[in-house]
Design a protein that fits this description.
single chain; about 210 residues
């Protein structure tokens, strides 16, 4: 079985936890994916950056060659259009990272109030205080019956009395007014095209 490419791995597991990644891929692949994840986050945070800035960043941070940096740039650019469909997961990941970092810093300072607020925000953001949603009972949903009608009163509108008779009367009226209209056959217009638009042969003869 062939080893998956880093492009495929990045598309599938860009934000998967590192511990899980290590059970699926080699250490080199995981290290490369974590590098792409960090640079992806940098690109999202710096949307106006130029390619050369990305290259400088990834080379300075990870000490890789220029060719490797450009290869990473190509993968990150490939992943960026997926942001619209995966933006919720991405921002959830970023928010969780910030909340956990706040909790760790507060814990190091023994700031229990901030720890409590961060923990409460984390729980609320991830909806851990709510029961798991149950599937909708689609088999119990009754289809709404619909019946076609020409009665406008079902829409709250007043019906016109003797509507069909009025329609017939209007048709008869307008037909009578147009009785003098005469249909004529289509005729070709005599534009004397040969005179006004001579062919090339005629032009040559005239010369």
């Amino acid at each position: 079985m062939s080893k998956p490419s880093i492009r495929d791995i990045a598309q599938r597991d860009l934000f998967t936890a590192e511990t899980q990644l290590l059970t699926q891929y080699s250490p080199d692949q995981v290290a490369h994916l974590l590098r792409l994840r960090e640079m992806y986050s940098w690109f999202v945070a710096n949307p106006d950056s130029k390619d050369r800035q990305f290259i400088m960043q990834v080379k300075d941070r990870f000490g890789i060659s220029t060719s490797q940096a450009y290869a990473d740039l190509a993968i990150v650019k490939m992943l960026l259009p997926l942001l619209s469909s995966a933006s919720r997961d991405f921002h959830r990941y970023r928010a969780n990272e910030m909340l956990l970092e706040t909790y760790r810093m507060a814990k190091a300072r023994k700031d229990t109030k901030t720890m409590e607020r961060a923990a409460a925000s984390y729980a609320k953001f991830n909806r851990v205080d709510l029961e798991d949603e149950q599937a909708l009972p689609y088999d119990m949903i009754v289809v709404q019956p619909f019946t076609a009608t020409s009665d406008p009163s079902v829409l709250g509108m007043k019906a016109i009395p003797n509507l069909q008779q009025k329609i017939d009367a209007l048709l008869a009226k307008y037909r009578a007014e147009t009785i003098d209209i005469e249909d004529i056959e289509y005729e070709e217009a005599d534009l004397e095209e040969a005179t006004y638009f001579p062919t090339n042969d005629e032009d040559n003869l005239a010369d």
